[in-house]
Every structure is written in structure tokens, then in C-alpha cells.
Amino acid sequence: MYISTRNSQRVSASEAIIKGLAQGGGLFIFEELPSIKYNKDFLKLNYKETAFQILKAFLDDFTDDEITSCINNAYNDNDFKPEEVSFNIFQNYGFLNLYNGKTFAFKDMALSILPFLLEVAKKKNNVKEKTFILTATSGDTGSAALSGFSNTSTISTIVLYPNKAISRIQEAQMLSFNGKNARAIAIDGNFDDCQRSVKDIFNNVNIDGVSLSSANSINIGRLIPQIVYYVYTYSALVNKGVINYGDKINFSVPTGNFGNILACYIAKLIGTPINKIICASNKNNVLTDFFNKGVYDSNRKFYVTNSPSMDILVSSNLERLLYLISSDKSFVKEKMDELSKIGRYEIKNEYMVKLSDFIAAYADEEDTLAEIKSLYEKTKLVIDPHTSVAYHAYKQNNLDGFTVVVSTASPYKFPQTISSALSCEEEIDDFELIKKLETLTNNKADNRILELKNVKIDPTVWSKDDIKQNIVRLIGEMND
Q1: Which of 37, 70, 159, 323 has the smallest number of CB atoms closer than 10 Å to its CB?
Q2: Is the Cβ–Cβ distance between 300 and 286 less than 8 Å?
Q3: Which helix (H) or strand (E) is 130 found in, with range?
Q4: Which is nearest to 283 in space by CA: 312, 257, 259?
Q5: How does pLDDT run across 119-145, given as a tens digit for each residue?
Q6: 376 contacts: CB under 8 Å, gap ≥ 6
Q7: Is 88 helix (H, G, I), strand (E, B) or coil?
């Protein structure tokens, strides 16, 4: 069963997936940690088999057949290739590459299965009305959600993203899906404005004949499949001879909304041999201060950086971590109320001690460029700016054991930044720049990225003050 982080609401896993957000603004979290424990048997499992074990444990009202069907539909032989999860291994560290899916970001892996989980959940709960996925994105979730839900007939998707604050490639991907059942809307504001509006709509808007849900990691149907990344990675490294079974490893995770890194923490909770988890932030380093000082303070300047998917000051999934370390709903509600009213909160030393699994560091824009350049010169590997932030954070901490840097997006989604890092800047179109980078680095871009050149960048832009009324109107139009 799943419970709200803030009140007494208690629902099944399938109901939590349908609702997305709990009543009163809370998030759903498992009532008890499942009894599943990482063991040597996991070494024998491929990615799909690992996913089955994790989903079976956490989605307790789904049958084995339902879970198997969802996995086979999402990770079928046409859409899911063995190289979708790949590694670059060096002496004491390596990169976990999760960006080889349809939209070239790690979120494809979880968002490809969420539509199937949601459809099963709707049938289990006799939900017949059309579902609208309402999601805020800082860059990559939007296109992954639009792609993942593109083949469903009973689910429509609306994505809100900050105007002029993501890369052209990211925006082109989202706009390429615009149609009757999918819309990407630019908001004249930042990601936090988008996310705040989505939560407000979930809590305060009811539309007859329509069910609202989310594809953000606030939805447990998106969060739980991400645990698989970390369990599978440990097994893969043992099987590759990189580590011995039982050796503890570290992960450095580029972090914005705190969903991916929370999945890593849950993987540790179920026994995966993980030592430290590095929370890597960009110049919007509110999480760095939280883990180092116990103070979460969003009352600071918001920066639009060269790692745009991490340009976030209110990290929603941190609320789940507060519950996991406290098991106290009143404590979580108190802190979330403080964040809403005054933009900050503090936690006591007794809770700080329970955060010792985490290390926090950040990279500014110059650090991000410098790490892309230094890694390429040393290894000929090209990484995207978000991965560069995580790589920099790893280098700031001299940790025992092997460290996995989570590589979350294709570098070719950010050609201007990569070009700047590698000193081949030219005043040319993004797609011409990609061609030059291909020649320079001898690394080919996926043709699906190059095909985005034909997408017209002409977004619909809403004021952040008009989001609620515009959403109601748009849902009405799309539901006709």
C-alpha cells in the first residue's frame, strides 16, 4: 500500500499511479519498504528480468502477468536494444549511459513503461474517463512523456516547459509531438512556476469526465522503474569483472527534481551494495546547501544555466526523502508548509545524521565546460552538460571504491554547449554545428536528432498567471 507523505490518505499502488499526486499536495510513498533484498540471484538477470523483480515487489496489487505484459510492451525488441543501457569504464570510475532511448534522455527508460502501468491501473480500478497527463518539465521529461504516451488512445498529454530556457533540440522534440492528443506549451516563467501550477491544478481543479495524472517523478509509476537502473548496474559491473560481488560502489547523479537520485537511495535501502550517493547540482545549488547545512532555502537568485534540466529551486521528491528519514507525516507537512509560505525550512541534527548516505557538490557553468573538455581530451568520450556536472561532483570527492557517474542525456541535445567546451564555436545553426562536432569528435549523432531540423519552433506561450484557466480550456478542447 501507498500513503501520503503529509496526511492519512492510504491507497493501493495502482490507485497511486492513477492519482499521481496525493491529497493536500503530498506525495505517495510505500507504507513499508518491500521485503525484497538484493542478492547473488540478481547477477543472473537481464534488464527486463531485473525490472520484473523490482516492479513485483513495489507494485503489490499488480499480478505477475500484468507486470510481465507492461515490461514486454515497454521494453520490446524493436524499441529496447541491449545498448540502451551501456557503460564507459575507466580505472576508478565509469559512466552509466541511459540516454539511448527514443528521446535521448534517461527518462525514456521509465516513461516508456508508465503508460502501460497506467492503463492496467485504470482497468483494475474501473476508471473509464479519459486521462490527461499534466506534466511540468525542465527539458527532458516533456519529450519522453509525449513519446511514451503517443500510442495510447485513452490518455492525452499536456506538457508545460519554461520558455527560452531549454535547448533548441529539447524544444523541437516536444513540439514535434503536438497534435490532438498531445500538446507542449511554453510558460513565461521558470520550471518551478510550471511545477507549482501543475500541483495547484491537481489539488484545486476538477473537470467532469476527466482524470488527471502526472508523468513527473512525483508519480510512483515513474519513480519505481528508475530503481531498476541502479540494481541492474551493480549486477552488470560484477558480471563485467569491474567489481567483486559485495564491493560497495558510489553513484554521482545529476540532480534537479530529486527523482532519479531518490531511486538510487531506494535501491540502497533494499540492499544493493551502494556506499555514497553524490547529489550533483548546477549553479542552482539549493540541494548542495541542504545536504551540507540542513537548510533548504529557495529564496535565492534563479539561474538559467548550460545544464537546463537541472535549473530547479524546488525539488519535489526531496519531500519523500524527508518522510523516509523521519516516518513522520506531521514533520513533513510542517516543512512543506514552511517552504510554501516562506520559501525555506531547516532540519535538526538528528535528521542530518540520517542523510549521511549522501554527499553534495555543485558545478558552475565554467566547471561544466571545463569537465567536458578535460574528459574528452583524456578519453575521447563526449558527455552532455548534466553528466559533466555529475562528473565534476565526483572529482570533488575522494571516495573509496568504484564510482558510477550517471550519464543522463545525449551530448548532441546541447550542441552549443559542447561546441563551446571543445572550442569550436561558430555562429551557425544547431544542426550544422552537430555535423561539425561529429567530424571533430568522430562520434556520430543519432539520425533521429538530425531529423528534428525540420520541426518549426513556434511555441504557444502562456503567462504563468494564466496557466490554470488555460489548462481547463485546453483540456476541454482536447476532450471534444
Answers
A1: 37
A2: yes
A3: strand 130-136
A4: 312
A5: 999 999 999 899 999 999 988 888 999
A6: 382, 421, 422, 441
A7: strand
Q: Is 96 helix (H, G, I), strand (E, B) or coil?
A: strand
CB-CB contact of 162 with 170 (8 Å): no
DSSP-derived 3-state class of residue 431: helix
Whether residue 102 has pLDDT greater than 90? no
Strand partners, 105: 409
* Residue with grid cell 548550460, as numbered in its chain: 306
| 204: Cα within 13 Å, side-chain hemisphere | 10
What pLDDT shows up at residue 279? 98
Q: Is the pLDDT of residue 82 over 90?
A: no
Residues 450 and 431: beta-carbon distance below 8 Å: yes
Instruction: Retrieve residue 452's grid coordinates.
Output: 528534428
Instruction: Find, among 220, 104, 114, the residue nearest to 157 by Cα.
Output: 114
Residues facing residue 277 across a β-bridge:
251, 358
User: Distance (Å, rounded) from C-alpha 477 to C-alpha 7?
Assistant: 35
Q: What is the pTM of this model?
A: 0.94
**221 with 111: CB under 8 angstroms?**
no
CA–CA gap between residue 295 and residue 338 (Å, rounded) = 12
Report yes or no: 250 and 94 within 8 Å, Cβ to Cβ. no
Q: Angle CA(252)–CA(254)–CA(260) in degrees, nearest 5?
A: 90
Give the chain's domains with CATH numbers.
83-104+223-454 (3.40.50.1100)
Q: Are 256 and 310 in contact (CB under 8 A)?
A: yes
The values of phi and psi at residue 289, to 5°, are -65, -35
User: In this structure, how many other beta carbons lie within 10 angstroms of the beta carbon of residue 365?
Assistant: 17
Phi, psi angle pair for 419, to nearest 5°: -60, -45
Cβ atoms 138, 160 nearer than 8 A: no
| Total H helices, total E strands in the chain | 20, 16
